[in-house]
Amino acid sequence: MCGIIGVVGRGDETLDVVLDGLSTLEYRGYDSAGVALSTPGLDVQKRAGELENLRDAIDAGETAPAGSVGIGHTRWSTHGPPTDANAHPHVDESGGVAVVHNGIIENYQALRDELASEGVTFDSDTDTEVVPHLVSRALGDGLDPEAAVRNALDRIEGSYAIAVVLADEERVFAARNDSPLVLGVGEDATYLGSDVPAFLEHTRDVVYLDDGEFAVLDPDGWRVTDADGTPVEKSVTTVDWSAEQTGKSGYDHFMLKEINEQPTALRQGLSGRLDELAGRVTVDQLDGLSTPGRIQFVACGTSYHAALFGVEALRSAGIPAQAFLASEYATGPAPVTDDTLVVGVTQSGETADTLSALREADARGAETLALTNVVDSTAARECDHVLYIRSGPEIGVAATKTFSSQLVALSLFTAELAERDGADSRELVAALRDLPNHLQHVLDESNAEAVVDEYLGSESYFFIGRGSAYPVALEGALKFKEITYEHAEGFAAGELKHGTLALVTDETPVFAVVTGDDERARKTIGNVKEVEARDAPVVAVTDGASDVERYADAVLSVPETHPRTAPVLANAQLQLVAYHMANRLGRSIDRPRNLAKSVTVE
Ligand code: M6R
């Protein structure tokens, strides 16, 4: 996730405050960083890569920024690769307006075309760069600085946390919409951060901005107004965080933080990709993709479970699809025809097995697509096409938010192909629109911790599901064993009776994922009765559409929704089960033994 820091009132210490703030934001993950300092003039310095690169450039005296007002940014690429030019801050042509931004400007292409037609030259591939040019144009039209920034904000659509500084102007302007931004109130200085840790070493008194609010930081302090300029009374709260917690935004573990970031991650993944009026999906990155006759997925671990979900979604839409474990694909026979598309599902874009499989697919003559989270990763660069899932960085080894984002991206991918054949996506589009809020509800209301307490110390844990609940069962078991080190297995619900039922006793809780009330749900309930008859405790993960609760000892509820979005909600409950069990057992949750975030060996 990108990070923002801003400060007014620290005089000669401004550059140090901004750079230190960026250091504390490093935990969010980033691939470039930059600063802009104002008064006198406006100095900007930015570099791709580690913050160290930026510090080195500054130490080397290349336009060392000076000034008493500053903003800084750590960027996680979404539009354009991580280069010096794409790093924030972005400036207008005069170099007098500098902007940092988190989020996605959905109408940036139209704005970019409009500005280009007026002769504006762009230096970067980013969506953000339209903002300084819009501010500059408004200043040229005679607006004062604050009005010019407001005018630019009026033109942009999408999600943003934004900070703007202007040459010789002792103010920072800031605004938020769907992306967090918080003020830090110090004795003689005011700070701005995308996250409290950015300025926590200077003050614990904070003001959280709400969507649509606009803040001005100046040497006299701060004020907040709504989008129309009407003053908003904000309360100052004092946070009580230990330094240890700050990198995790107050969460005990990155995994829990990332589980809770899922509604935001999904909003980012959906941003600009749903046309609610037309009831269609609009995935620009798939525009150049020819319509495949059949699809083969290659993936590992959690991403393989996402691929199984993709297979189910595509087949339901009448599109032939198969999923292969990437490590088996490269060395095995996989018939590729002229119209085969091979999709590598890989959050990191660097998994050696998946890269090998994609290279083999390419050698066999298939078109390839990378479905990944990391802009400019090896998979993204080597494939013919790329679809970014836009989760933001994931630091915990256990994949959580990237899995949810993969499921959403695969739903969009399926809908895009199905629409080409005349399918109607109206219901799916509505369900995807509601998904972030439904997921928030699940996270807020989950009783997973209490369920875990009930079954702590069991012999084994089984997870079952059918159809698109099958990959959820597999993923639930993988997450559980990966971080608890307890024995767990996931099964297609109908398979249990073909062997594993022999292991089922009153010491083996069975988590049954049952959403909807179709034939599959009813058959899974039959399998639930089989384990119940062997005294196994049953935990139903359900939307209440069927009567599975009657046979369950405990229930993890999710809202009723579309069959393509229900797995995301059910999976969130199982993520929390795994997390709380591992926490009770005192495991190393963010760095489980023997595992790595990115597996770069075959
Ligand atoms: O980066 P990738 O998605 O290609 O990683 C593949 C697997 O190594 C990964 O999904 C792994 O299974 C998860 N970290 C487990 O939580």
Alpha carbon gap, first and last residue? 29 Å
Count of individual helical segments? 18
Largest sheet: 8 strands, antiparallel
CATH fold-level assignment of the largest domain: Glutamine Phosphoribosylpyrophosphate, subunit 1, domain 1
Number of strands: 26
Strand order of the largest sheet: 3-2-4-1-10-9-11-14
CATH top level assignment of the largest domain: Alpha Beta
CATH architecture of the largest domain: 4-Layer Sandwich
Architecture overview:
The protein is α/β, with parallel strands linked by helices and 602 residues long. 34% of the residues lie in helices and 22% in strands. The chain is built from 18 helices and 26 strands. Helix 9 (301-316) packs parallel to helix 13, helix 15 (448-455) packs across helix 18 (566-584) and helix 16 (469-484) packs parallel to helix 18. The longest helix is centred in the last third of the chain and has 20 residues, at 401-420. It is globular, with a radius of gyration of 25 Å. The model has no long low-confidence stretch (mean pLDDT 93). 5-amino-5-deoxy-1-O-phosphono-D-mannitol binds next to helix 9.
